[in-house]
Design goal:
Layout (H helix, E strand, L loop, with lengths): L3 H9 L3 H9 L3 E2 L20 E5 L2 E5 L4 E6 L29 E3 L6 E8 L2 H8 L7 E7 L26 E7 L15 E7 L6 H8 L4 E9 L2 E2 L9 E4 L21
Parallel strand pairs: 6-10
Antiparallel strand pairs: 1-2, 2-3, 4-6, 4-12, 5-6, 7-9, 7-10, 8-9, 10-11
Helix pairs in contact: 1-2
């Protein structure tokens, strides 16, 4: 079980030494107003989040934090970048900001749903190809795309220029009923939606290139069953109580871990 000093250090972004001094000074009070001085006090998972008062500031102590962000175009997913602003910077003020890591990636010119968590195993579970986690993308296209080849079961069976076979579970044109987060740049002549189980390097763009079109704008509207709220503005984020826990599934050997779409 986590200790009080550990939780305070992680949630406040302070060192354990500083937290110990704060506790021993009587500056931390529990939900009932009681002074908390013992750094070794343990809290059971059922007690979290645990609200404390630190020098007049209300702080919710958490073991882990999960967020959903509407990543805007023009920012990169990485936490630090010398050339571009980052999606992580837009999370400033979020709980446990220093520990948040992105679940997968979106390119500089892509927008949409981006999950963040402090829980490393969840990142692996939601991005590893063996988990076959669905991602839904909507795109604005420079021209209509060609009908994709399908196998005997009617499933899309497309081979890309590099010989890879994207795991496409749905692909269809959109007749104006797109997510409001999808931009429609000048020259847009068609809209489409594609659902993938991989999301490897530039895969969405390569799929539509193989179908004779060109992606002008790309927005991820869903990931692992979570959907981007239509009212969420670019750059905004919300805290989630939990992230999905997908079960392992069989994946083809050529699948690779998720990279920018």
């Amino acid at each position: 079980m986590p200790r009080l000093d550990q939780l305070l250090a992680r949630n406040l972004g302070l060192s354990r030494r500083v937290v110990t001094r704060v506790l021993r000074s009587g500056s931390v009070r529990g939900p009932g107003g009681e002074v908390l001085r013992d750094p070794r006090l343990t809290l059971a998972p059922g007690q979290l989040p645990f609200t404390v008062d630190v020098r007049g500031r209300q702080v919710q102590l958490r073991e882990h934090v999960h967020l959903m962000q509407h990543k805007p175009v023009g920012v990169v997913t990485s936490r630090k970048d010398n050339r571009h602003p980052t999606a992580w910077d837009l999370l400033e003020g979020a709980p446990m900001h220093a520990e948040l890591k992105a679940v997968g990636r979106l390119d500089l010119d892509a927008s949409g749903l981006l999950l963040w968590t402090t829980e490393g195993p969840r990142i692996h579970a939601l991005t590893h190809p063996r988990r076959a986690v669905s991602r839904v993308y909507e795109v604005a296209l420079a021209r209509p795309f060609e009908a994709p080849p399908r196998d005997a079961d009617g499933q899309v069976s497309l081979i890309l220029a590099d010989g890879s076979r994207p795991r496409i579970t749905a692909l269809a044109g959109l007749e104006g009923a797109c997510h409001p987060a999808l931009p429609r740049p000048p020259g847009t002549e068609a809209l489409a939606s594609v659902t993938l189980l991989d999301g490897s390097h530039h895969e969405v763009k390569r799929i539509f290139a193989a179908l004779g079109s060109h992606v002008l704008a790309l927005t991820r509207v869903a990931h692992a069953g979570l959907r981007l709220p239509e009212a969420m503005a670019p750059g905004e984020w919300i805290e989630l109580e939990e992230l999905p826990s997908p079960s392992p599934q069989r994946a083809r050997p050529e699948s690779s871990a998720e990279e920018p779409a």
